[in-house]
Automatic annotation (TrEMBL):
This is Molybdopterin biosynthesis protein MoeB. One of its GO terms (molecular function) is tRNA threonylcarbamoyladenosine dehydratase. Pfam families: ThiF. GO terms for biological process: cyclic threonylcarbamoyladenosine biosynthetic process. It comes from the Bacteria. Residues 4-224 form the THIF-type NAD/FAD binding fold domain.
Length: 226
């Protein structure tokens, strides 16, 4: 248990052992998803499903923790599995190298305790919300763009993304603002903290509200959707 000793002041021994029983699906293994998988694995989540169709490119090196100069051209989902084999081999990582779409989404997500959104387009996020609701699975949403980020926790029936993306635009502002190294790490850490609370059933959730993060001014504020 020495691996998790530093968790014990915030988690009980029983809670830490429970983490082994959970199965979490991370949809997207890039900027957000790579950090999410890293943190989930170090916490000791027993089973992680990593979903991504893409391979690493040079432009990923500025922010994606799973990327390095030696694995350019390698599939991101497969690298997530390889990474966790060196970080915490007790964690089972299933790599799914496929485009996440309405044809395979239900089959991929079924059987998970929680889903984490690390996608990079609005249409797919809205579809992900629909499938999670259908399967009665909680969803942790995160998005990043330049200095900015947002996080919300969506329980089945909340439909919070309908409020955030009420105009249903196809293009997110990250295409214009880009993404540095620090924003995905910060947003991913908040997503994982929300995931831990959902799985253990404790703490206040970012439910029916979104946390907006501005690292340029270091302002953080929440907007409720009732």
């Amino acid at each position: 248990m020495g691996r998790y000793d530093r968790n014990m002041n915030m988690l009980s021994k029983e809670e830490n052992e429970r983490l082994r029983s959970f199965k979490v699906c991370v949809v997207g293994c890039g900027g957000l998803g790579g950090y999410v998988i890293e943190m989930l694995g170090r916490l000791g989540i027993g089973h992680i499903t990593a979903v991504d169709k893409d391979a690493f490119e040079e432009s990923n090196l500025n922010r994606q923790i799973l990327s390095n100069v030696n694995n350019l051209g390698q599939y991101k989902a497969l690298e997530a599995k390889r990474r966790m084999e060196t970080v915490n081999p007790d964690v089972v990582v299933d790599s799914i190298i496929a485009e996440f779409n309405d044809k395979n989404a239900e089959g991929i997500l079924k059987g998970h305790n929680l889903v984490i959104d690390a996608l990079d387009n609005i249409q797919s996020r809205l579809m992900l919300q629909d499938i999670c609701e259908k399967l009665n699975i909680p969803l942790i949403h995160g998005a990043i763009a330049g200095w900015y980020g947002q996080v919300t926790t969506i329980l089945p029936g909340d439909r919070t993304l309908n409020y955030i993306y009420k105009n249903k635009v196809q293009r997110g502002i990250e295409k214009d603002l880009g993404n540095p190294s620090f924003t995905p790490a910060l947003v991913a850490s908040i997503q994982v903290s929300e995931a831990l609370k959902v799985l253990l059933g404790r703490g206040d959730l970012l439910r029916k509200e979104v946390l907006y993060i501005d690292t340029y001014t270091q302002e953080y504020h929440k907007v409720r959707f009732d």
